[in-house]
Amino acid sequence: MIGRHGLERRLHERGGEREVRFLYRDRRPRIPVWRDGRLQVVRWGNGRRQSRFLPATGWTWQATVEQGYWRNIGAVRVEIPATLGCDRGVWFRIRQGIRGILVPDERGIAVAYMVCVPSTHYYQVMTRSPRMPLLIDEHI
Amino acid sequence: MSKEGRETAIGHLDADCFYVSAERVRDAFLNDKPVGVLGNQGACVIAKSYEMKGLGVKTGEPIWEAMVKCPEGIYIKRDFRWYEVLSRMMLDLMRDASRRVEYYSIDEFFFRAEVGRGETFEGLARSLRDRIQECVGVPVTVGIARSRTLAKLISDASKPHGARAVLDAAGEERLLADLPVTEITGIAGRRAERLSAWGITTCLHLARADRALVRRLLTASGEALWWEINGDPVQAINCRRPAHKTLSRGGSLGEATDDPTLLYAWLVRNVERLIEELRYHRVAAGRLKLVVLYKTGHSAVGQRTLALPSDRFDVLLDAARPCLRQAWARGATATHMHLIAEDLAPPGQAALAYFDPPDRRLRAEAVARVKERINGKVGRFAVRSAATLYLPAIYADAANAYDICDVRDKMCF
Ligand SMILES: [Mg+2]
C-alpha cells in the first residue's frame, strides 16, 4: 500500500512507531478513506483547483451535508481512519476516525472532504480553530 | 523499631506523571510518545509525559508555549473521573499491603512499611511498585525511610519507576548531600532565602544545622522538618483527615439561570457532591446552609438544622429543599450556588426511631450503599438522582464529572 501510493515521503516516526501523515498543506493532499470495506487513498479536497465545480477547500460543514448539497452531486459518506489529528500545529488523539464524504469530480476522479462542525469550547481553546472535524463516536 | 520481630518504617508511593499514565492505561497507543494532558478548558498542560518533560515542557505551561518546545506532542483532554477510578484502585491495593495508609493526594500515599524476618524494605518497595503496575497499569515510584519527609525525598529522587529504601545514616547522608533544600515540601521562596543567608542550601546542610537556628528561621514547622530529615519521625501517617468545621460544595452554575427547575437540579447535584465529601471525611451534617448568588450582585441564604446529623441523601435533600425556597428570588437570575454542611458530627449515632422509622432508614441506607459502590466502581455520578436530568449538558461531558475542586489536594485548573 505504501509503495503503491507513493507514501514513503509521508512516513514519519513518533515514539518508535511509524505513522503516515496526510496533511492538507501537502503539495498533493491525499487522505485515506474506508469505502465498501476497502481502504483507499484519494485526493483530499480541491485546494489546487483541479476541478472547476467542486468547492476549493478540503472540508465541509455537517449542516451542508445534512441539507443534501453533496448528495445532489453524487457524494457518498465515508469514514476517514485516523489515530491523530493536527490542527494549527496541535496534535490531538483521535480514537476511531473522522466523518467524510467522497464525491466524483467532472472527470470521475474521487475527491474526499472532511466533515466539520463548530468547535467545542475545549477544541477552540486548544487549537484556536473555529471548526473541528466531526469525530466518529467521540466528543472532545 | 522492632515489634514481634518485625521492623517498621514509613513509605511514600507516588504515581509517575499520573494523568498521562492513566490515559496510557486505556490507550496503549500513547506509550513512549510525548503526551500532554490539558486542563483549564484546553489552555494549559497540567501533566506531561517524561518524553515531553525532557524537551522542557513544564506543568502549568500554556499549550502554545508547549507546542514550540515539543511540536510532536500529543494533547489529551483531562478526565478526572477516570483518574479517580484508578486512584481508588491504588488506594485499595495500598490498604491490602499496609495497616496504615494515608491518602495524601489523588496519586500519592504515605504508608506504614513493615517487614518480617528475611525481608527487606528495598524488596517491599519493589514489590509494591510492581504490584500497582501489574494490577492498575500505572507506573509508580516508592521510597521507604525512617520519616515521611525522607521517604518523599527518596521517591522524588528515584523517579520514574523507582523503588528505593534508605534507612542507614550513611545512605541518608549521601541522599541529603545531593539534594537542594528546596526539594523538601514546605521549603521554597522566602524560607529558602532565609536559609541560604546562613549557607544552608542542601538538605544535608539543613540536617546538620543547629536546631535552635532552624527554629528561629523557619518556626516550629521548620523544626519539625529538621527532626524528620534527621530520621526522627514527628509527622504521623494520617489515616483520616483532620476534622473540618464545615464542608461545602458548589460553585458557578455555568450558564446563569432563573429557572427554578434548573436551580433544583443544581441543588440535587450539590447535595450528591456534598454527601461524597461527608462520607469521605466520615462525618454527618448537623445543619445545612445554602447560598445563592444573583447576577445583580445580591445573594440570599437559606438554612435548616437537621433533627439529627445525617449523611443520607433523602434526609439532606429534605432539608435542602426549604433552604432553596428561602434563598430563591423569583425572576432573578442566579449565577452561583454553594451548599455548606455545618455542625459536623460523627455519623451513625443517629438511630432514634422517633425521628426516622427504622424501615425507612434501612431502605435509604441500602440505596446509599448500592449507589456508592456502583459509582466507586464505574465512575462518579453513574448512579444519580433523576432530578439532575435537567442538566444534561453538564453530565453528558465526562470532563464535567469533576468540578476541579473535587480533586482533593491538587492545584485548581
Ligand atoms: Mg505523582
Describe this structure in words.
The complex is a heterodimer of chains A (140) and B (413). By secondary structure, chain A is mainly β. Chain A is 9% helix and 41% strand. In chain A, a hairpin with a 2-residue loop joins strand 1 (11-14) and strand 2 (17-20). The model of chain A has no long low-confidence stretch (mean pLDDT 94). In chain B, strands 1, 2, 6, 7, 8 and 9 form a six-stranded mixed sheet that branches. Chain B has a four-stranded antiparallel sheet with strand order 10-13-11-12. Chain B contains 14 helices and 13 strands. Chain B is α+β, with helices and mostly antiparallel strands. Chain B starts with a strand and ends in a 17-residue tail after the last helix. Mean pLDDT of chain B is 87; it is low at 404-413. The interface between A and B is medium-sized, with 20 and 25 residues. Strand 8 of chain A pairs parallel with strand 5 (74-77) of chain B. Bound molecules: magnesium ion. Residues 14-15, 18, 107-108 of chain B line the site of magnesium ion.
**What is the ordering of alpha helices and beta strands of chain B?**
EEHEEHHEHEEHEHEHHHHEHEEHEHH
Low-confidence stretches of chain B: 404-413
Oligomeric state = heterodimer
Helix content of chain B: 40-55%
Shape descriptor of chain B reads globular
Q: What string gives the helices and strands of chain A in order?
A: EEEEEHEEEEEHE
Into how many domains do the coordinates of chain B divide?
Answer: 3
Fill in the keyword field for this structure.
heterodimer; A: 140 residues; mainly beta; seven-stranded mixed sheet; 11 strands; B: 413 residues; alpha+beta; Alpha-Beta Plaits; MutS, DNA mismatch repair protein, domain I; Dna Ligase, domain 1; 3 domains; six-stranded mixed sheet; four-stranded antiparallel sheet; 14 helices; 41% helix; globular; disordered C terminus; binds magnesium ion
